[in-house]
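Appendix C: a fully annotated inverse folding record. The material below is reproduced so that readers can follow the format used throughout the book. The structure is listed first as C-alpha cells, followed by the designed sequence.
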C-alpha cells in the first residue's frame, strides 16, 4: 500500500473560512480540524450531522448528538488567517488577505477588444 500524500494547504486550524461550493455554500466559520491525508476540514457550525452514540457511563441510555462533519478542502476560501505568535506572548495576529491580483490583458486580447468596439454599429430606433 503506498504512503499517504500530505498536501500543503491554503488554510489551517483556527482560520476563518467561507464555503464557496456544495450544499453548504455561503456558510462561514472557524476551522476546528484539518485532515491533510483526506483533504478535508471540519468547520464550526457547518454540515451538522447526527451521530448515534452507544450506551456508556457518560450516556447510560445512549444518545443522538449533533456534530460537525468534514468538507473537502477545495470547497473553502480563506477569509481571515490566524498567525500564532512565536515568542512567549500568547497573542495571535489576525491577517485579512488582500486582493493584489492584477488582471493583465495580453496585447492580442486588447486589440480584439478595440476592434469589437469599433465594429459595433449604433442601433437606430
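Designed amino acids, in order:
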Amino acid at each position: 500500500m503506498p504512503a499517504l500524500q500530505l498536501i500543503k494547504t491554503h488554510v489551517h486550524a483556527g482560520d476563518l473560512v467561507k464555503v464557496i461550493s456544495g450544499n453548504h455554500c455561503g456558510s462561514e466559520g472557524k476551522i476546528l480540524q484539518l485532515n491533510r491525508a483526506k483533504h478535508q476540514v471540519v468547520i464550526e457550525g457547518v454540515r451538522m450531522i447526527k451521530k448515534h452514540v452507544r450506551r456508556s457511563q457518560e450516556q447510560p441510555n445512549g444518545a443522538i448528538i449533533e456534530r460537525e462533519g468534514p468538507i473537502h478542502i477545495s470547497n473553502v476560501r480563506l477569509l481571515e488567517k490566524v498567525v500564532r505568535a512565536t515568542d512567549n506572548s500568547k497573542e495571535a495576529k489576525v491577517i485579512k488577505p488582500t486582493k493584489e491580483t492584477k488582471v493583465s490583458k495580453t496585447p492580442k486580447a486588447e486589440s480584439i477588444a478595440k476592434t469589437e468596439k469599433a465594429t459595433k454599429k449604433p442601433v437606430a430606433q
